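Q: What would this complex look like in 3D?
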Amino acid sequence: MAGEWVQEVLALARRWFIMLRRERLNLVFSLAQPAIWLLFFGAGMGRAIDTRVVGTADYLSFVLPGIIAFTVIGNGVSSAMPLLFDKEDGYLEKLMAMPISRSSVILSRFLYQTVLLAGQVLLVLAVAFAMGVRLAAGPAGFVVLMLTVALLTLAVTAAFLALAYAVPGHGTFFAITGFASLPVLFISNAFVPFDAMPPWMAAIARVNPLSYAIGSMRILVLEGWTSELPVMLGVLAGSAVLLLACGTYEFRRHTGGRVG
Amino acid sequence: MTPLVEATALTRAFDSMTAVDHLDLTIDRGEVFGLLGPNGAGKTTTIRMLATLLRPTSGTARVCGFDVTEEPTAVRRRIGYVMQQTFQSGRYLLTGREAVEIEAALYHVPRRTVRARAAEVLELVGLTPHADRLVMTYSGGMKKRLELACGLLHRPEVLFLDEPSLGLDVQSRHAMWDHVRALRDGGVTVLLATNYLDEADRICDRLTIIDHGRAVTTGTPAALKRAVGGDVLLVSTAERERLMQIVSPAPWAIRVAASDTVVHVYVADASGALPALMRLALEAGIPLERLSYTQPTLDDVFLLHTGRELREAA
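A: Here is my prediction, written as structure tokens for the whole assembly.
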């Protein structure tokens, strides 16, 4: 029943928000991090960058989507961590004995991550605005940009959840995420455009879903509404669906052997 | 009246190990039913199957009239499951009240009554004064009581309690037993898994002794103990084998069994058997280190049926 399902998702999400509220420093650092990065990249790195390579004189606008992607990836580990601990602690098992929909557990985390990310992105956008960045796509572009962030959050959180349920223990989880998080970011167009990369790197970057989220946001910030935007968003949405399917599969597999 | 929990030839195998082996259980409405056995006997596996968390390899189980594999959701709505462990991650940074309210919503307690119901169960387990403290700061006994409270939120017809007093001090154990009795008096059926003899003896109306996944015997604690005999003589000696040889043929010895350290001699009446046993030992030249007698306990019941003492079996 829909009413019961909403009640479950909200109750589980309440848990995540209470935890966040009790960890004020976690909240402060999470919110401030992307804004700090933007300052660093904008004020420092921007001066070391050849504007002919990035294709625009406005490096701050160029790097803003990269910073947002950096933030989403950076939140990946913490997005899956409580569910990983629930799994090891046996609390997941307790949840499974309750008359709740299996999907509520994962959805509550998506809801939480999306709200947290929205807060972080709004803050970094405010800082960017103060530093003179304007969205080429205007106010409607802002809405689409936030939707892009939500899609990216869904994709990244799903990938990390899939890993959390797939690994035998948290050691493996942290080893793999520590190994893979930054390369995934660096082999994308977050800080360097495709054209400036060596061919092998560009080839990998072009199949990295992150590139399409960054590409979409970069179009909204630098160019406005182009015909390329729906294609990019389409690829991002497709990747999100695929990763969500992986996450659901691993969750089912982990809770398998159980009934229903 | 149909039984509230009914398992028939319930079996679960993990790889090469059969954790539960053709177990039959019949639990009637309103009783506290015990599963008594050493660690690893299959108690938790049995409960996990009844709670729809584990698919039986073979056999069937019905809980509150619903098949656990066919209608798991209907079963989950009617059961409360208090697991053996308490939770670090599951209660991280939550107060007792918050934890209980969240679970009330997960059991679909109507929104407007969540607060009241949470307060009610917290009161029931005596946690009202500590409800707004973080669960991380609770003692072991308080954490167990919190779990019990969570198991009661949706007024389950049957409550599965897996080792409810594991790791508790004496005072907390007695408090837990009082809660269980109060629940039974309130009409809740309880299935309690334990490896504590005194716990099973004191609060179970009926129990099944389980060992290596098999049901060894079932009955009320009093009937099980009666079946062992009137009294038990406990004899400590270095020459257990010889003592058993000379005592076994005696007409007053109903049965003789030995654990690692003590020979148990089951007799109808200790007052006549004690001097008789001493005389036999003296004539055979067997030195006795200690000699006492007691009423049979559930440990004797376990020894009778398995050849081991429950205390050593774990």
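A: To summarize the key features: Chain A has a mean pLDDT of 91. Chain A touches chain B through 31 residues (CB under 8 Å).
Q: Very helpful, thank you.
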